[in-house]
Automatic annotation (TrEMBL):
Residues 182-262 form the MoaB/Mog domain. One of its GO terms (biological process) is Mo-molybdopterin cofactor biosynthetic process. GO terms for molecular function: molybdopterin molybdotransferase activity. Residues 2-164 form the MoeA N-terminal and linker domain. This is MoaB/Mog domain-containing protein. One of its GO terms (cellular component) is cytosol. It comes from marine metagenome. CDD domains: MoeA. Signal peptide: none annotated.
Length: 262
């Protein structure tokens, strides 16, 4: 009998990568067959992380309770809209979460932290605190930059990786074809449909467990069969799975030193 380490080495030397194919990123699943590289900045533009008001941080320096700052509100930016050009000093712009930051504005103060007033038909906000540059702003390229690895070859695609891939506007990815797996459980002690009444048998739990585990990973199963302790029957079932072009055959049982362990 060979050792576990020897068995792993034999398998490692014998295994070859399965064929790969392209899948649309939105529907992709399985194992990546190549690195996925970013080609652009993500986020694609600097945007607000809060509902509030876009401000120039330098203009808020020194603002405090006993020295509040009043800024003119010059418009409102909704998500998906272009930002207006604002050249006037001591100005701000109402902004919603995800909206593009107007040029020259580098911070957002949440709506809950300002006082909104109306004077002579014009809207103002009153700020009683300094707002640090970058506060509540998601800057362009903060998550990914061109040339950065999004996901590596051999990684199993999960919802988080797919989110990053789609955020980078990658239209398709290369994945390996899932392996076709056959499951063979052995042992004359396992219950069968045609067994004699009152036979000292037990339910076949390993087979359904393995099959469910494989299917949960999104891998097709070429079937699950069970045979008694017969070397001839075991070889026949192995051959049947090979005829079905199974890439992997998982065999449960017969691994000890008993007289019925083949």
């Amino acid at each position: 009998m060979i050792t576990y380490k020897e068995a792993i080495n034999i398998l490692s030397n014998a295994l070859q990568p399965l064929p790969d194919f392209k899948m649309a990123s939105e529907q992709a699943h399985g194992v990546l067959a190549g690195d996925v590289i970013s080609t652009e900045e993500v986020p694609h533009f600097s945007n607000s992380a809060m509902d509030g008001f876009a401000v120039r941080s330098v203009e808020t320096n020194g603002a405090k309770t006993d020295n509040p700052l009043r800024l003119v509100v010059r418009g409102c930016i909704l998500a998906g809209e272009l930002a207006p050009e604002i050249d006037q000093k001591e100005s701000c712009c109402e902004i919603m979460t995800g909206s593009v930051m107007p040029t020259g504005f580098d911070a957002v103060i949440p709506v809950e932290q300002v006082e909104l007033i109306d004077k002579d038909g014009r809207a103002f906000i009153v700020i009683n605190q300094s707002v640090k540059s970058g506060r509540n702003v998601r800057f362009s390229g903060e998550d990914f930059k061109p040339g950065q690895v999004i996901a590596k070859k051999g990684q199993l695609l999960n919802p988080h990786i797919l989110m990053a891939i789609n955020a980078n506007r990658v239209e398709s990815v290369s994945v390996y074809r899932p392996p076709k797996i056959g499951i063979l459980t052995t042992g004359s002690e396992l219950e069968t449909v045609n067994q004699e009444e009152n036979s000292p048998t037990i339910p076949n739990t390993n087979g359904p467990f393995l099959q469910a585990s494989i299917r949960r990973m999104g891998i097709p199963c070429n079937g699950m069969v069970s045979v008694g302790d017969s070397s001839q029957m075991i070889l026949e079932k192995i051959q049947n799975f090979m005829d079905l072009e199974s890439d992997i055959i998982i065999i449960s049982g017969g691994v000890s030193a008993g007289k019925a362990d083949f």
